[in-house]
Amino acid sequence: MGLIERQTRLPREFRGYALNVAARLEASLPHFLLHLYYTNSLRRQNFFAFSTEIDLDHPEDFLRRIEMQAPDVLADVGHLDPLAQVARALVLLKPKRVLEVLFGECPDGLLGVFSRFGSQPVYGPETYRLAFELFSDPRHRHRAKVLGQLPGQIRPEHVTVAASLDERLLHRSVLERCHPREVAALNRFVEMIVDLCGATPELIRESLDQLPVGSTGCRMTEWAEGWLARQVRLPFEPPIPKTDPDLKLRLGADLISLGRRFRNCASQRQSFSFVGECLIYEVTIPGEPAVVELLRLSSGTEVRWVCEDLLTVRNRRVKPETAAAVKAKLDQHGVLYQSLTRPPDDEQALHRLLDHHVRPAWDERAIAEREAGGAILDQMLDELEEEVHGREAA
Questions:
Q1: In this predicted model, what pLDDT tens digit does every residue of 336-388 receive, in sequence order?
Q2: Hey, which residues does 248 pair with through a beta bridge?
Q3: Which burial class, exposed, middle or buried, applies to 85 when counting CB atoms under 10 A from its CB (0-12, 13-18, 19+)?
Q4: Rounded to the nearest 5 degrees, what angle is found at the Cα of 130, between the Cα atoms of 127 and 135?
Q5: Rg of the chain over CA atoms, in angstroms?
Q6: How large a percentage of the chain has pLDDT more than 90?
Q7: Which position has the higher pLDDT, 217 or 40?
């Protein structure tokens, strides 16, 4: 049998707070720093955790813990100064024992997480203590389990996110995608979907299970947008009661349906309805179909609503009689509005004399251009529908 050549381990430097501690121990025990440069990642991480937990100006407490946990390590070293004893103990102690001395115990799974931190000190020194708390506290068992499910190297932000996420969001896919600065928003969002979408822990879990695992560079935005279509209520009382027979509030999936039927951008208003900035109502008054968009205005504790727009199919202006009927409804519910009908000819003439920029919706030239463009668009859409229906029939 031939000899197996042992792979040479190359030195790996490190910097920052851990190097400062290592330099002080090197001064008391020569070659200690060289040992750290050549040792494996787990032992290096143990030392980095030591650097965040122990004050070298007062090493007596650490030495007392070693005497209780592993008295043989300090045998026959009484002639060395305290820092040299500390350095020697770090060299001789096994990784698990080092963590037991540092934290009082080494719970299951903690050693594996430390070994996956890589070879460099984590940029958040508090990460080591936080990881210990996750694995040692029975209340955080689920958080520790999800953290352990991550493949490959574990980064400090993984630990921070696992410790901070709402319990209902603890999932491998979330930990892979979420940045610590997004945690507060996600926690708030999950509360909102419970209130506005009727989400249960089971439904939230099912939606997270549909996210692909192992994806890099992905965000939680697509998952969050998926919940917008499930909205069924508002975070406040709507300005127009649900009992009104002529103005129907459209939320969530209804906005998608509305956008298809009216060929407008109602589906893009889902997030606005979700956060309560603006609302879309479908006009069901007999006659011309129309859509009303209401904008939320506030001053202190007072909240008012204003009609931002009133349009019919394909974002065209409504007829005067439709506008008059909607205005009466808005007056009934205390909703403010600008002029919803085309200004009289004499008023338009005055605007032209003053070079006053009227709303494009009422400008004759803009109306003509829009109608011409709308006719072309209508023809294109009709042809597209015929093509789609033809393929479905085939």
A1: 988 666 667 777 777 777 776 655 444 555 455 445 555 555 566 566 666 65
A2: 282
A3: buried
A4: 125
A5: 33
A6: 68
A7: 40
CB–CB of 180/163 below 8 Å?
no
8 A C-beta contact, residue 318 and residue 327: no
| Phi, psi angles (nearest 5°) of residue 312 | -105, -160
**Is the CB of residue 231 less than 8 Å from the CB of residue 252?**
yes
Over range 191-204, report the average pLDDT: 96
The candidate with the shortest Cα–Cα distance to 232, out of 265, 203, 262, 263, is 203
> Tell me: the pLDDT tens digits for 281-301?
999 998 899 999 999 999 888
Q: Write the DSSP symbol of residue 167.
A: G
CA–CA gap between residue 276 and residue 271 (Å, rounded): 8
Task: Select from 142, 147, 145, 108 the least CA-distant residue to 127.
Answer: 147
Nearest to 280 by CA among 305, 304, 245, 300: 305
Cα 24 to Cα 58, 87, 198: the distances in Å are 13, 10, 58
Angle (nearest 5°) at CA 376 between 375 and 381: 95
DSSP per residue, 42-83: HHHHHHHHHHHH--TT-THHHHHHHHHH-GGGGTT-TTS-HH
Task: Enter the tokens of residue 152.
Answer: 């490959």
Q: Which residue has the higher pLDDT, 10 or 41?
A: 41
Residues 6 or more apart from 103 whose CB is under 8 A from it? 53, 129, 132, 136
Q: Which of 130-139, 230-239, 378-387 has the lowest mean pLDDT?
A: 378-387
* Residues 284 and 246: beta-carbon distance below 8 Å: yes
φ/ψ (deg, to 5) at 338: -85, 180
* Local confidence band at 83 (pLDDT 50, 70, 90 cut-offs): very high
Would you list the domain boundaries of the chain? 9-164, 167-228, 247-341, 342-389
> DSSP assignment, residue 93?
S
Given phi > 0 = left and psi -120 to 50 = alpha, else beta, which region is 108?
A: beta
Q: Are 122 and 48 in contact (CB under 8 A)?
A: yes
293 beta partners: 280, 309
